[in-house]
Amino acid sequence: MSREAESARIWKTPTPIAIERGAIYFVNFNPSKGTEAGKIRSALVVQSDLLNEVGHPSTTVVPLTTQLIDGAAPLRLRIAARDRLAREFDLMLDQIRTIDNRRFNGEMLTRLEGEEMMLVEEYLRILLGLE
Is the pLDDT confidence value at 104 over 60? Predict the structure, then answer.
């Protein structure tokens, strides 16, 4: 079975989950275009829980990658392995995007708290020109 066919089979029936700001989940980014992050990969929810709690049909996320690049702030932020996140990842903050909630797959892998979320917010303010 091809990767595309397997991906379509997996994503035919999305798993309903409680989406929370600061949490990392698996997300299906296929299909992608050009330089967009693709494939099934983990992503950090950055959208406000005000929207998440009322069942908003889409969610703003930042994809993660295992292709680590040192010293790439504010484009990247290193996330240490923990909980169900098996290895180190970089957040690709320049790849922020809003996705349909049917792209989520499975339960929360881990959660960012405190200083990590403050850094995410700081880097996004820089990248989005909100400073």
Answer: yes
